[in-house]
Each structure stands twice: as structure tokens, then as C-alpha cells.
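Team,

Forwarding the record for the chain on the shared tracking sheet. I've put the sequence and predicted structure together so nobody has to dig through attachments.
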Amino acid sequence: MTELYEKLFQPYKFSSGVEVKNRIMLAPMTHYSSDDQGYVTEEELAYYGERSAGVGTVITACAYVIAGGKGFPGQFSADDDAFIPSLRKVAETIQGKGAKAILQIYHGGRQSPPDLLPDKQPVSASSVASSEGAPVPREMTEAEIQEVIKAFGEATRRAIEAGFDGVEIHGANTYLLQQFFSPHSNRRTDKWGGTLGKRMIFPLSIVNEVEKTVAEHAKSPFVIGYRISPEEGSEPGITLDDTLQFVDRLANQNLDYIHVSVGHFWNGSFRESDRTESRIVKIYEKVGNRIPVVGVGALHTPEEVAEAMETGVPFIALGRELLMEPYWIEKIKSGKEKEIRTTLSKKDQEELVIPDPLWEKLVNVKGWLPVVD
């Protein structure tokens, strides 16, 4: 291992007290491989086990906190105590390989397909469809808002009881928390919407509920992260300036990190073409040393990751890279970085321990992974 990569392997202790062995995280990726009831399958456990030995932290695919927030077929659940043993298998599999296990928790909001929901009716901040022809959600009542806030707390308790090292609150990728923050999906005139400050109240209420739950139930250090998407293409939509004000608030919470969800680490604003500096770097500069930032996006080689970390961003999450090369970290440590796999063959599924439903998505989504015959 050369000096160029030393920063990747530095340990880090979060403000909660949880210490990780290096700065690389497995990014949360939907894998569509749980059973229809929301229980984890052996295929998922094998998938996580194959990718948990080198990285310091594994962030799981998102688990729904309430049945009305399920967003994908084959998604695992954290909405009832009956799922604690199932969740425990995930945590133990990841930790058994040496990584810290973070459960991502979420609600799909208006992005939840009606056929996956008990009442076939998605809900959101307001009755505004995500796009023309998409299902129109029902505006949430005050009671439903409070129920979802408590559900995030209860999912956190279950993560604690299942033995996870932390949770990541999914406030990105146009799901429910982002829907409350967005002026496109939140047209409310009560305390939950209107001004930018009011649109922050729902996600901040969930942060507070999760923090309260951790303080009450965790008997050892426990991580709380928050994932954001910095912009929206819709009009009206979230702007980078909106997000910079939001992360300024998040940095003053008792969070351990902010995880930025973008397609490319170095891309500037897609809403304002004159703002070309990396949005991740802008967020890092805004929060400074108050809270670690996790960067992500099209960083394929060790050299690209090292270059991104030279900006000061302390953590990098890898998704596609660890799908193609589960031993990405180990090959760098042993000086074999030239052997890191950068393309996939359709014959590679078994070797890479990728469940059938995820593999079908990978090979059928053109351009997402470099798949060769």
C-alpha cells in the first residue's frame, strides 16, 4: 500500500463514541431480495457477508419503518418487533466480518408503489404527484405525521435491540423526508410547510425522535447518520442554497455524519450552471469540522477516492465499486490494486455473491454497471 492511500485506512471515532477502522463505507443499495413479508433471506446475508470484511462501515439497504412506507418489492422491514431476529442476522453477518453495521431507515412517501401498500394509497406532505401520470398521494394528517415520527423512533429501538452499531435516517432520493423539505411536494400551510424553516420541521422532528430513542435505549455508543440529496430538478424544487441552510441546522444536531447522495462526487449544481464546484465539497465547507461528511459518486479507482479525500471530506461511500469488486479494500492493502475488477461478465454473479433479483436489475439497467458478454 502506497502513501497515496494511507488516508483511506485511518481509523475514526464518531462523536457518539463508535470507532471505525477506515474511511470507506459500503453505500446503501436496494437489492430487492427479502421475502414478501419483509424478512431477510440467506441470499442477502451472503451478499453482505461478502462485502463486509474490508470496509469500515456497511450501510444497509433501506428498511421501511411502517407498512405504509414500503417502497420496493423484496425490501426488508423494521416496522414491527417480529423483525428484530431478522435484522439481528444482518447486523451479526456484517459485524462478524469486521465492519460496523448501520441500518438505513426510511419511508417512501409518494414514491411508494400503491400495490405494495396495505391500503393501496401512498401518502406525502401534500397531494402532489411526483410527475405527470404518477399516483397522487394523500396529504398526511397531523395524526399520521406523529405516527411516522414515532415509527422512526421505534425502528431505531429495533435496530438497537438487533445489535446494529447505528442507523442512517434516509432523507434523500425524493422519499418522504425529502418530500416534506421540498417546495414541490410540500404545499402545506400549517406548521409543517410554507417557509424553508417550516419545511425543515418534519425531518428535524424525526432526527430528534431518533436521538431521544438512542439516549433512552442504547447501552453502548450508537451512530446516527442522515442522508440528503442536495438538489431537485423539479420546479419548484430544492436548491443548493436550501440544502446549505439545512445542513447548517443538521450540523448542530447530535448526529455523527451527513451522507450526501449524488451521482458524481465532482459535479456542481445542475440547477445553476455557473456553480461548478462540487456540491459535496460545498456542503463540507458549510459544516466545517462540526460533523463529518460522507461523499459518494463515480469514484471507481483508489486514486480517484484518494483525490476526493484530499478536499478534506473524511469519508467515501462506494456502491457499484463494491458490487463489482467485493475485495476492493483488501486488494489495495495487499498492493494488488491493479487487479481490482472494473467490468462485469454475465458469468460473474455466483463469484460476486449477488442475489438473483439484484443481478437482474444490474444486467438490465443499461449503463449503470459496465457489463460485458
